[in-house]
């Protein structure tokens, strides 16, 4: 049985992530789903390569795109998994190093029987470049269909909404199990409260 891997920055976690994870669990109900949170989410280190993937990754890791510290991102994802009946079983969360900085280091602690999952919709060029890059490394890649018609289900859109509305932002982008924690512990990283 393969380990299914979904990786992300979760800056912040939002319902688009949750819908994708639910689609993965429906497709692979008995497999371990390993959620890999990218450990180094700021662009303080230069990517080791100059492919399109490396260039886009460097931009994605700009400090302004990554306000939440590791603990807060882990806690939000953990609350979301615990609060979701479909995700609760056979789902683990770990930190992973950035693949654009050092591929070998980024996969060193992962199981060999892994299948990486990515969304079909690929809203961003980064998703497409990442798929091609992982395939170039000989990795097994699965593209997952899921439906999400909410335009706010992108971390960029969520960060823009928080910037616009500050502490009065509508937290409907989050699972219910995360809202209190986000308001109490995470909102301060996006706005002055």
Explain the overall architecture:
- The chain is of the alpha/beta class.
- Helices cover 39% and strands 15% of the residues.
- The protein has a 5-stranded parallel β-sheet with strand order 3-2-1-4-5, sandwiched between helices.
- Strand 1, helix 1 (15-27) and strand 2 form a beta-alpha-beta unit.
- Helix 2 (52-60) packs across helix 6.
- The chain starts with a strand and ends in a 7-residue tail after the last helix.
- The mean pLDDT is 89.
Strand order of the largest sheet: 3-2-1-4-5
- Compute the separation of the termini in Å: 47 Å
Biggest beta-sheet profile: 5 strands, parallel
Mean pLDDT equals 89
Q: With helices defined by DSSP (H or I, 4 residues minimum), what is the helix count?
A: 8
Strand count: 5
% residues in beta strands:
5-15%
Helical proportion? 25-40%
* Succession of helices and strands: EHEHHHEHEHEHH
Radius of gyration: 16 Å
Query: Which outline best applies?
Result: globular
Which structural class do you get from the secondary structure elements? alpha/beta
Low-confidence stretches: none
């Amino acid at each position: 049985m393969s380990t299914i891997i979904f990786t992300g920055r979760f800056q912040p976690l939002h319902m688009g992530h949750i819908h994708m994870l639910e689609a993965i669990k429906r497709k692979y109900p008995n497999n371990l789903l390993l959620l890999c949170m990218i450990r180094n989410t700021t662009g303080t280190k230069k990517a080791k390569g100059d492919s399109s993937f490396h260039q886009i990754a460097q931009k994605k890791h700009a400090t302004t795109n990554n306000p939440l510290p590791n603990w807060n991102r882990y806690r939000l994802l953990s609350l979301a998994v615990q609060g979701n009946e479909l995700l609760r079983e056979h789902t683990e969360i770990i930190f992973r190093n950035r693949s654009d900085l050092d591929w070998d280091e980024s996969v060193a602690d992962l199981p060999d029987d892994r299948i990486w999952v990515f969304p079909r919709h690929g809203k961003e060029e980064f998703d497409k470049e990442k798929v091609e890059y992982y395939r170039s490394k000989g990795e097994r890649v699965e593209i997952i269909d899921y439906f999400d018609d909410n335009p706010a289900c992108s971390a960029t859109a969520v960060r823009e909404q928080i910037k616009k509305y500050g502490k009065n932002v509508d937290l409907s982008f989050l699972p219910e199990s995360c809202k209190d924690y986000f308001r109490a512990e995470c909102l301060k990283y996006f706005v002055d409260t």
